[in-house]
Specification:
Number of helices of chain A: 17
Strand order of the largest sheet of chain C: 2-3
Shape of chain C: flat
CATH topology of one domain in chain C: Histone, subunit A
Distance between the termini of chain A: 65 Å
Distance between the termini of chain C: 46 Å
Largest sheet of chain C: 2 strands, antiparallel
Helix content of chain A: 25-40%
Shape of chain A: elongated
Structural class of chain C: mainly alpha
Strand content of chain C: 5-15%
Largest sheet of chain A: 10 strands, mixed
Number of helices of chain C: 3
CATH architecture of one domain in chain C: Orthogonal Bundle
Oligomer: heterotrimer
Radius of gyration of chain A: 29 Å
Radius of gyration of chain C: 23 Å
Order of helices and strands of chain C: HHEHEE
Chains: A alpha+beta (488), B alpha/beta (488), C mainly alpha (98)
Chain lengths: 488, 488, 98
């Protein structure tokens, strides 16, 4: 492809629009079920299929969840908000207009604090509003089919300010938003299923340049890693275009357009040009009265917010002694943090548990598409594993092998795994180990001398040698004790 | 039997004088014989109706409590859903569309033991004032077959005027029930906006539409209003108040002590004959104990313009759903998506509908919305305010229903001229207030004329009671079109 | 006051997906011009301090409980659908995916 142009002359401006499907039982304007994965057109009503004579009625719980989210991001929950009709024609739209909130959204402003490369960064949210989702198109060879199960599902659209300046920041922002949504139980946040969708608006400009250049919109990025790739590729492309078309006017080089990310080809494909701004002809929805929220209602929702990700993170650092980074990683995903706390009920070594969850097992799970929960490894089992290491029953090295076994047979008790495998049972018998210690001591007089001279490294060397000689089977604890006894 | 009012007919049924089957057969017979020259019905349900009548006779025989409309045949405008029956809205586009759910009003009516005998003709999608713009047939005025019955609910008006049914439902967005009521010499009442559910009414102007009853007497109208004037949880604009008892206390003193406001300046343009008839009515009001008060409603000269902007704007989005994808007639030749959209509408929509959709799209479009749509909404606020001010000085307002009586078919070719027909009825829909049309005389060429009584929002009972007093003191409600007088 | 010509009609027809023949466009632009001319009457009134009327009767907060209730059955829904297959509503191929 193209040579990546020197980026340091350029800066990137990114705005993100995140559409989130709320996990209410029923749809936004009708009582049809809000459920994913069922047979096409089985979760429908007259409202969400746009039948003539149908009328929308607003779901109370959707409003509550939107307000909850607004409070969680310290946004201003509007005392007065209303709905508008947004007109456009598309087969997945049951009425050929969407009911959304145009100029009076339910939440204005807000802040997302995200962890970017171990640094805390604050990002501004412009607004959050409620709207109904469209149906889904399914492409077959000779026709396109429309399924209205998703039509009418409640969405909140979270619009950031154009204050994101790199793909890493974009991913961090989205992860932080996802975490908050998980913690308040507002959505399944499943990017593959489409309950969390991110559209990115990207433009570049010379460092220090005021004003914004034309932007490109990228849709359909179905994972955070794909999003990173897509944004990075687009930034490179724009910089290349500007750098290689210095004879043209700036606004002629990048034409505003919408691209979709093709997950198979791993590249962006143009969907349509935006020559003229779409004329959506927004006007107030006559079938729906406005939403009027009292300060008392809003305050109550704020007061009843569950523990949010950053609060939990702080708790882990302060009360459990986790490092800031570990606490951040583990609290980024609520199911994982919940898993961790369950394991903590049985084992108090928070740091070790965290390590096993976020590094050891995370590494093993990486390409499976599963999580500790979905693979079926019980939190108590993890607790047991750590306990066995801490009590010296198994070495760190053996523990890794046990972990591999747990991956192969999820649900199997690690104590049982260890009991069944003779290789995992370190020898504690002093009478068996002592000869080995004596042998090593005999062979390494210099190390003994070094240790006595104050070099602790020498001791570790001797321990290592004994362990090697025992082929890892000796209990490290016993080896330590014996050595200490003999050479101190 | 056709000389009986609905209430008399119901009582005859309850007393055992007639069976439901006799009543039903009688009216079906009349409809089948007379409608050839009148064209009021788009469809009749003789089998279902007779079955229902039989069931009612059995219900009565078993001693169960019968509903308020027991045994009464009723005609329904064909833009109101009866589940399982075709709803055409007078349009080719929906000629094969079967309603998947019943409107709230039809459910309520059915619960009260009435019998649906058929669906009536209308101007396509309720857009018109003559019932000549239906895709299927023209409806004729029973008083003079060369004249229009008014519109858009002409079919229902004619069904009642010709005594093919004692009761009928229409819809009133700018006068579509009151104007045909006056052209056909019967009673038509538009309730306060939100009093009757719009669920199951195919929407035209969402903030203006109300389903409205037709009958030959005010008491019959009040009876039907008691049944359909209920809060509905499927309609977010439905008034959150319980149903009212309109018949209770209805007596000939309904005008005693009433201050009746007359906007003289606004009525200046009225032609001689209608002016005389109107003024004679005012004199009669005074005889009945009312006081005539001058009020200022000069702002109403802008009402028509505001109405045509708002109604067409709402309609342009309400009708967008008719794209031939989920229901309706899809153009068989259409191959691409764009063709489906445009060709289905080309073959499905008549010229008046197209005109209004384009106008509505225009007034909402970017660059024009402020000057037209928003402006009209502001004028609407002023109109509502002016009505409120006027009602401080009076209890009811009186105006003619229409500048003239039923006109000859084809005599008005200019669409704008047709719109000017509705000059007295339209402001009522903008203000959401209740208004009734009751017969108040005949022109020199023996065509009926109506007078309009208007009340403030939620004063439906006051309007009905005043109209009752008027009716009881005048002979007009006894008049029947000559061709309807025979027994058959 | 806006002037509506055939170009305007074409744009409006596209925005609302309505097909108009050449003659219809002619006739419609005349009709619409007349209507727009008439409704421009509103320019006469001063509405500077006036708020637009979005609600005719002053309602607010009309909600329903988050409950799943009887929905439309697929069979009834599709019984009105011009073209359906395998439970889906059929439209022509929407875009060329390449």
């Amino acid at each position: 492809m193209t040579q990546p142009t020197h980026h340091s002359d350029w800066e990137t401006v990114i705005g993100l629009e995140i559409h989130v499907e709320l996990n209410t039982k029923s749809k936004l304007f009708s009582s049809a079920p809000n459920r994913f994965g069922d047979e096409p057109n089985t979760n429908i009503s007259e409202v969400c299929t746009g039948q003539p004579g149908a009328l929308p009625v607003l779901n109370k719980e959707a409003v509550r969840k939107a307000v909850q989210f607004g409070c969680a991001i310290n946004g201003k929950v509007a005392a007065f908000s209303k709905f508008d009709r947004k007109s456009y024609f598309y087969p997945d739209s049951p009425r050929n207009f969407q009911i959304t909130q145009f100029d009076e959204p339910i939440v204005i402003g807000g802040t997302i604090i995200a962890d970017v490369n171990d640094q805390e960064k604050s990002f501004a949210v412009n607004r959050v509003h409620l709207e109904d989702d469209a149906g889904m198109l399914k492409h077959f060879t000779s026709f396109t089919g429309v399924d209205y199960n998703r039509a009418g599902v409640p969405l909140i659209e979270i619009v950031s300010e154009p204050c994101i300046h790199s793909p890493a920041e974009a991913v961090a922002y989205c992860m932080a938003v996802k975490a908050i949504l998980q913690y308040i139980d507002a959505s399944d946040c499943n990017m593959e299923e489409g309950s969390l969708r991110v559209d990115a608006n990207i433009s570049v400009r010379k460092k220090g340049e005021q004003g914004l250049r034309p932007k490109i919109e990228i849709k359909n990025m179905n994972s955070f890693s794909n999003m990173h790739l897509a944004i990075e590729a687009e930034i490179r492309r724009q910089i290349w275009e500007y750098s290689h078309n210095t004879d043209k006017e700036i606004h002629e080089i990048i034409a505003q357009a919408t691209y979709r990310w093709d997950p198979e080809k791993k590249e962006t494909v143009m969907m349509r040009r935006k020559e003229t701004a779409d004329d959506y002809r927004y006007f107030p929805e006559p079938d729906l009265p406005p939403i009027v929220l009292t300060p008392a209602y809003i305050d109550k929702i704020r007061a009843e917010l569950p523990e949010l990700p950053r609060e939990r993170e702080r708790r882990y650092v302060e009360k459990l002694g986790l490092s800031h980074h570990s606490a951040f990683v583990i609290t980024s995903d609520k199911p994982t943090a919940d898993y961790f706390e369950k394991a903590l009920e049985k084992c108090t070594n928070a740091r070790a548990l965290c390590n096993w969850i976020t590094i050891e097992f995370a590494g093993r799970l990486k390409d499976t598409g599963l999580s500790l929960v979905s693979i079926g490894i019980e939190p108590d089992h993890l607790a047991k594993l750590v306990t066995m290491i801490d009590s010296g029953k198994i070495t760190g090295r053996i523990a890794k092998a046990v972990a591999d076994n747990m991956m192969e047979s999820p649900g199997k008790d690690p104590e049982q795994i260890v009991a069944e495998n003779p290789d995992y049972n370190p020898v504690h018998d002093t009478s068996e180990i002592e000869p080995l210690v004596d042998k090593i001591l005999a062979e390494n007089p210099q190390s003994i001398a070094d240790f006595r001279a104050g070099r602790d490294k020498a001791f570790a060397f001797l321990v290592g040698q004994v362990m090697k000689l025992s082929r890892g089977k000796a209990s490290p604890q016993v080896v330590n004790e014996l050595l200490k006894k003999k050479i101190s | 039997m056709h000389r009986l009012s609905a209430i008399e007919l119901r009582n005859s049924f309850l007393k055992g004088k007639f069976s439901a089957q006799e009543i039903c057969r009688f009216y079906l017979n009349r409809a089948m014989k007379m409608d050839e020259q009148l064209g009021a019905f788009l469809s009749l349900f003789p089998e279902q109706a007779m079955e229902r009548a039989k069931a009612l006779d059995e219900k009565k025989a078993s001693g169960q409590v019968m509903g308020k409309l027991a045994g009464l045949p009723i005609a329904i405008k064909d833009n109101i859903h009866i589940e399982g029956e075709i709803t055409t809205c007078g349009s080719k586009f929906l000629s094969n569309y079967r309603a998947p759910f019943s409107s709230t009003v039809c459910r309520l009516i059915e619960k009260e033991d009435a019998i649906f005998i058929g669906k009536t003709n209308l101007d396509e999608f309720a857009m018109g004032s003559s019932t000549q713009d239906s895709a299927f047939q023209s409806t004729s005025n029973p008083w003079d077959l060369t004249c229009v019955p008014g519109g858009s609910s002409g079919g229902s008006a004619v069904a009642v005027a010709a005594r093919m049914a004692p009761l009928a439902l229409g819809s009133d967005t700018g006068g579509s029930v009151r104007q045909p009521a006056s052209f056909c010499g019967i009673v038509g009442f538009k309730p306060t906006y939100g009093r009757v559910s719009r669920y199951g009414l195919v929407a035209y102007g969402s903030s203006l539409d109300q389903i409205s009853p037709f009958a030959t007497t005010v008491s019959d109208t009040a009876l039907l209003m008691e049944v359909i004037g209920q809060h509905c949880e499927h309609d977010s604009t439905s008034l959150p108040i319980p149903g009212e008892d309109y018949l209770e206390g209805m007596n000939k003193n309904g005008l005693m002590g009433m201050r009746i406001g007359v906007p003289r300046e606004f009525l200046e343009q009225l032609a001689e004959e209608p002016k005389k008839i109107f003024n004679d009515s005012l004199k009669k009001f005074q005889e009945l104990g009312a006081q005539i008060v001058d009020i200022d409603l000069n702002i109403l000269k802008y009402a028509l313009a505001a109405y045509y902007i708002i109604a067409t704007a709402e309609a342009s989005t309400n009708l967008a759903r008719f794209d031939g994808i989920r229901y309706g007639v899809r153009a068989p030749g259409a191959k691409t998506l764009e063709e489906i959209y445009t060709m289905s509408k080309e073959e499905g929509f008549g010229p008046e509908v197209k005109r209004r959709i384009l106008l509505g799209t225009f007034v909402l479009s970017s660059g024009y919305q402020d000057a037209y749509y928003r402006k009209a909404q502001k004028v609407r606020t002023l109109i509502i305010e002016k009505y409120r001010e006027a009602f401080k000085l009076c209890d009811l307002i009186a105006t003619p229903v229409s500048p003239f009586a039923a006109f000859e078919k084809g005599s008005i070719k200019d669409p704008l001229q047709m719109y000017l027909e509705d000059i007295y009825t339209i402001p009522i829909n903008l203000a959401g207030v209740p208004a009734i049309s009751v017969p108040n005389g005949f022109t020199s060429d023996k065509k009926p004329v109506g007078i309009q009584l208007i009340g403030p929002q939620k004063a439906d009972k006051r309007v009905l009671h005043a109209a009752y007093a008027w009716e009881q003191a005048t002979p007009f409600h006894n008049a029947m079109p000559p061709l309807a007088q025979q027994e058959i | 006051m806006a002037e509506i010509n055939k170009e305007t009609i074409k744009t409006l027809a596209y925005l609302s997906r309505i097909e108009c023949t050449e003659e219809e466009q002619e006739a419609l632009s005349k009709d619409l011009n007349k209507m727009v001319g008439y409704v421009s009457l509103l320019d006469e009134i001063n509405t500077e301090e006036v708020l637009p009327c979005n609600q005719v009767v002053d309602l607010e907060n009309v909600f329903r409980e988050d409950e799943r209730k009887a929905t439309l059955s697929r069979d009834i829904f599709l019984s009105n659908t011009p073209k359906s297959f395998g439970g889906f509503v059929v439209v022509s191929p929407v875009f060329k995916q390449s």
